Amino acid sequence: MTLHPRTRLIRNSRAAFTLMEVLVVVAILVVLAGIGVVVFRYLEDSKENVAKVGITNIEKAVEAYKLAYGNYPESLQILTEPLDGKPAYLDEKSIYDPWNRPYEYHPEQHHPKTGRPLIMSGGVTPGQTKPIRNWN
Fold this sequence. Notes:
By secondary structure, the protein is an alpha+beta fold.
């Protein structure tokens, strides 16, 4: 009669990840990074669009001020203050671009055809990128 030794079940303890697990994690990280780059680009494009809309709103407020008072305002700050019992033309935050810098307003520079003053933003990096202006 032969006796069989009692076998114990030994659990394998894992010391590391498998190659497949590492590849799946790397693939997920690459996909997330790619999505992040695309979203960041759209975010910058949307900020430029917001700046264009802001400039258009300021331009309309400047024109309304000219109709009411006969000349263009000396600064954008004037448009944020109530005048003659009338509400302000713009909110205080409306004179700042999406990058939290004040819009540039040049009442002394008039467009040759329309006569409107220059309103602009420096864009993402002033001096390095093309400014966003109300003149084409």
